[in-house]
Amino acid sequence: MNFFIVSIIKIVIVFAIFMTTLAYLQWVERKVLAHIQSRTGPFRVGPNGLLQPLADVFKLLTKEDLLPPYVNKLVYLLAPFIAVCLALISISVIPFGPEIDVFGYRTYMQISDLNVGVLFVLAIGSVSVYGVALAGWSSNNKYSLLGALRSSAQMISYELPLTLVIISPLLLSNRLSFRAISDSQAGYYLGFIPRWNIVQMPFPQIFAFLIFMVAAFAETNRLPFDLAEAESELVAGFHTEYSSMKFACFFMSEYANIVTITCVATLLFLGGWHPLFPAPYSSWVPTAVFILAALTCFYHAIRPARKRDRLTFPVFGIAFLVLAALWAVPFLQVFLVPAFWFAAKVGLLIFTFIWVRGTLPRFRYDQLMHFAWTFLFPCALLNLLLTALFVAVF
Amino acid sequence: MDTILFIIFAVVAIVCAFNLVLQKHPISSALSLIGVMGSLAVLYLLLGAEFIAMAQMIVYGGAVMVLFIFVIMLLNAGTEKSSGKSWFAQIAGLPLLLAFVALLGVLIRGVLPPMRTVRFGSWVGGTAQRIGLMLFTQYLLPFEVISILILIAILGAVVLARKEIE
Amino acid sequence: MLHLPPVPLSWYLILSAILFTLGVAGFLYRKSVITVFMSIELMLNAVNLSFVSFSYELRRIDGHIYSFFVMVVAAAEAAVGLAIILTVFRNRGTLQIDEIDSMKL
To answer: Predicted ipTM?
Structure first.
């Protein structure tokens, strides 16, 4: 009974944090894309545009919810449901930190530690192709069907290199559970180089990481592989006929897939929640980062661009100082510092996703498929063979 | 708890299998088959077969059924027309099928020795480590033969589905 | 929480038998080639359930390995079979197995 209550509390916490992250991920994306393109992005709604996701949620909720008469109703309503449920389920095997001790109850910072966690994430990724394929088919529309077929063919083609490069760090850690893989990346070479899988010794997995990032872009239908849902290409691809909340479901599932795949990349290649340099110094990094952010806010509050920022910037500065104080409390540091390092690495990878979106042009569909089958798949296979060779010999 | 899970997912599997046989449009049958495979994956987890459950979802649910759905979409398969040619099948079909199930049930309850009850977690031997060990030591020859079989299947599918070069 | 008695293994085998029979029924009754194929996949899944159940009973991993081989063979067969269906559709224009009878006497 204890186990059920603790699990429900963990699910509520992770779900709340995850949904807020998804909403604010959209803000981050719009701001970063805007600054790459030399414009400002949303800055009217709330301070610096921070309430823009709230405005978007209201807009999507109050839009007219159409059910076109020419669609196959059951499959049309099922497709966004499948997409969003599967995208949210895969967060349940991702560990955010080490084992912690809450009021005398020892538990993991993870909703469920499956022995076959890696296979679970792969299975969910495989089955989530249906959300896209069924959405396009049920819309009874040429553009949707074409977009859906192309998008699902792309997703299943890139699953192959993705699976092969996931196996390579597994050869180094010999376990399939995410927590065990992260724990095998603890410790430091020569006292200061972290033993992350990217630099781990029989065969550093740097190529596997690069192939994983490319395949991750294709799996989540992001630029440069987003031909299937690009606005200028196929009307809007497989979600042409969807309005308001169902469209929001597809949007949420796309961002949730991005977050999940970057979490998996962090756990497999970048060492999960283990810090960059050894323990006593790395516990003060979050506090230092937040104090720096607070100082930046106070500096910008001295001569702000808009009148009302005289008030909002100091408020943010004080909020950052409170967070810095929170991360300096010793008994909270046990679970907050690993969570900070994990979030920092995931944030870096998500920034890379957004950065690539703003920088690279789109691939044509046949170039995309040719790239997967003739270049990425042999590279992934070669990487696996070399890893196996080095692990067997050394 | 495992009893409730077994009952729920066994009922889902049987209902989806009925749906597969009774639906007229291939895509509804395909979705029902995906439902069957999902419930069977949960039943494998109850029986302690964690690797096989995940492999079922990845291979069947994520590859084979996607292939089926692609082909149904590409060929634009419509609702099928019933032909109603054979009076023997209409009359004697259902009783013969029920007799078949009854025969199998009698064999299972009567002929096989008494078997264990299923408790989730009472056997944790279905790990990937043990399957990997057996595949590469005792079952190495079938494993290599299966790899060649998949190669043949890939070549066959590519040759058959290719457009004729005029 | 209700405490229901645990399920005997024979119930899993009976479920496997029912699914197999439904697969046979679909295979014999349906007229669309793709649905016939899906009934074959249903039969193979029912057999997989039997293998895994017996593996649980005898506490050996061999049932899982046979189940794995059945899965692989089913995937290979689905690939080739669907390629054949595509070719038949291109040449005959129909997916009803009653109408593909030009080699009948």
So the answer is: 0.91
